[in-house]
Amino acid sequence: MTKDVIALTDRMPDPSSVLAGLLSGGPDKLVGTQGDGAVVQLCDPEGRPLVSVETPMLIEVAGEAERLLGATAPPVPYWWTEARATTGVQEAERLAGTFAARLTSLLGGSAWPPELARSLAVVESDGASAASTVPTPAAAQPAVDVLTDKVAVVIQDRPVVAMTAWLSDAFRAAADADLGLQIVSPAGTTLSLAVRNALPGHPSRWVVQDERDGYYDGRSGAVLRWQNGMFAPVDAVLASDGSGDDPRTAVAAAFKETADAGERQLALTFRTIHPADERLVLGGAVEAVWRELTGEPPAGWGTAEPAGVPWSPRRLTDVAYERSPRPTWAVVVGSPDRPGLATVRISRTKAGVEEEVTLAFGYGTDEAPPTDALPRVAEVLATRHNLQSLLVQLRKARRDLAVPPRFEGPGVPVAFVLGAEEVRRIPGDRARRTPLPVPPVQLGPKARPALYYPLPGDPSDLSGWRDFERLVSHLKGV
Question: Are the beta carbons of 342 and 336 closer than 8 angstroms?
C-alpha cells in the first residue's frame, strides 16, 4: 500500500523547515517539482519520485483531522502538510515518515500515522528506486499508482479516503484521458461522502482488499480480480439454488455482514438556478438548509478535503467567479457535534448560474432526524433561492457520514419538491393532481406556487420509492 504521512503543525512550514525535512534522505537526494511548484518531490537517481510533498494547507475548521484521520490535531488554526510515499518502496515510506517527524519537531504539532514519524535520522536509501514500470503520467499525478489504457489506480491506506487535492487532480486527469478511476484500500477503510458522490460508474470502482475473497467492490460487493488492465468482477457464478440458468455476480461475504445500529442520515439533493448578476452571492441555499435543520450555519468549506476555510458565501462566490466559465466543486462541513457534509457544484449555463447540492446530516440512536422541518426548508428554498427541485431521503446509515465497504440499503424518499418554474412548465393542473393519497402543499405565492409532495412511504421499507416513481411518471405525463 502507498503510505500517506501527514504533518499537523502549530506553525507554517517555511522554506527552511521544509528543506530540513527534505534532507531526510541526505544531501545527495534529487529534488524536483510538479504542478508549477505546488508539489515538491524527492527522486531516485533516474528522476522518478520517491516522496511527493503537497503545499501546506492552513486549517481553520475544527474537527477535520478527527473526521478524516481519527487523529488529534493542534488547536485551530494549524497547518496540514501531506507527504506521499511511492508504492512498493520501503525506503520511500521511511523518507516520508522522517520528513513529517522533522517538520513536527521544528514546528510543533503531531504526525499521522505516528508509528511512521518517529525518527529524525537520515534514511539510508542508497539504491532505492521507484519501479521502472511507473509511467511518467503517474509521476505527474502523485496520487496515481498504476496507469493502464483503461484505468488510473489510486492506492489509499488511510482511515477515510477523502477528496484531497491529490485525489481531485487524479479524478480530473482520469476524466480528461477518458479513463476510469479505481481506488484501492484495505479492509476497515471508509469513503468520504464527497468521494462516493464523485466516483463515476464502470470502470471506476472502490476496490477493497479482503482476506477471504481477495478484492471486492466496496459499493456493490462484487468480487473482483485484476484482469485485462483493471479490476473487474470475476466470472459470473450460478444462482445459489443451482438452477443453472440464472448467473449472478459473486458477492463478497464481508460486504453482506451488516447490522442496523439504529443510526440514520437525512439526505437532501437539490438544484437551484440564479440569474447571472454581478450582485449574486452563492451558497445561500446551503446555508439556509443548514440553519433550518441544525440551528447554525456550516462550519467550513473548501475545494478539497480537509475543508480548511471558515464558511463564507462571499469567498465561495469569489472562487466560483474566478474559475468561471469552468465549473467549481466545493465541499461544505458542519461542526464536530453535528455531522453534516455537502458537495456543491457551481456551473455557468444558458439558464444562469446553477448550484447542484448533495447534503447529508447524521443522527445517532437517541437523535430523531427533524423531518417535521422539511416543509419549512422547502419553502425557504422555493421562495428565496430559486429552487428547481428537491428530493429528501432517510437512510439507515452511519451518523459520522463515512461510507463503509458494507451493504447499506437505499434511502427512502420522504419528500419531493418542484420549484415554481418547474410547476409552471407542467401543462394544466397535472402538477396539483397526483396519484398519491396526500395532496401536494403549495409554497410561496398562490399565483406562482412551488409544490411540496409528502411521500407517505414508511421509512422502514421501500414503499416510498414506489410512490416516488408513480409521482414522477404522473408529472411527466407517462
Answer: no
Spell out the residues 6+ positions from residue 446 whose beta carbon is closer than 8 angstroms to its own: none
At 283, the amino acid letter reads G
User: What value does the CA radius of gyration of the chain take, rounded to a whole number of Å?
Assistant: 24
Please state, in angstroms and rounded to a whole number, the distance separating the CA atoms of residues 267 and 333. Answer: 14
* φ, ψ dihedrals at 16, nearest 5°: -70, -40
At position 342, the amino acid (one-letter code) is A
Tell me how far the alpha carbon of residue 61 is from its chain's centroid: 17
Cell numbers linked to 46: 533516474
Asked if 128 contacts 85 with a C-beta cutoff of 8 angstroms, the reply is no
* Better pLDDT: 288 or 126: 288
pLDDT of residue 70 exceeding 70, the answer is yes
* Run of H or E residues at 422: helix 420-425
pLDDT of residue 31: 58
Helix, strand or coil for residue 140? helix
Q: How far is the first Cα of the chain from the last one, in angstroms, to the nearest whole number? A: 51
Q: Compute the Cα dihedral for 141, 145, 147, 152 and give only its sign.
A: negative
Tell me the residue ranges of DSSP E strands in 140-263.
146-147, 151-155, 160-161, 180-185, 190-191, 205-210, 214-217, 223-227, 230-233
The helix (run of H) or strand (run of E) holding residue 57 is strand 57-59
214-217 β-sheet, strand order: 146-147, 151-155, 180-185, 205-210, 214-217, 223-227, 230-233
How confident is the model over 111-136, as pLDDT tens digits?
A: 999 887 766 655 555 544 444 444 44
- High-pLDDT (> 90) share of the chain, %: 66
- Tell whether the model's pLDDT for residue 233 goes beyond 50: yes
Q: What letter would DSSP give residue 410?
A: P
pLDDT tens digits for 146-165?
Answer: 999 999 999 999 999 999 99
pLDDT at 243 over 70: no
DSSP 8-state class, residue 302: E
Cα 62 from Cα 299, distance rounded (Å): 8
Q: HSE on the CB side for 47, CA within 13 Å?
A: 6
pLDDT by residue (tens digit) across 39-49?
Answer: 777 777 776 77
- Residue 240's identity, in one-letter code, is S
Distance of CA 297 to the CA centre of its chain: 20
